[in-house]
Amino acid sequence: MVNGWTAERRKKQSEAIQQWQPWNKSTGPRTIEGKTLASQNAYTGGYSPLLQAISASLRDQKEALKLLE
Length: 69
Description:
Blueprint: H1 7-20, H2 32-39, H3 47-68
């Protein structure tokens, strides 16, 4: 009983959820704004790889300039 849920309580909650079946009532986003927001749920950002590529390119250019001196 680490989190306060006994085996009996978990079983009772599981049975209640099986009766309610909230997953059948879920409709997802309905408005265009909601759909737009939901479409970005998996987006993790795109700037870090771009900045790393720019940094590597600048480093290569710096090394190339050193060779020309």
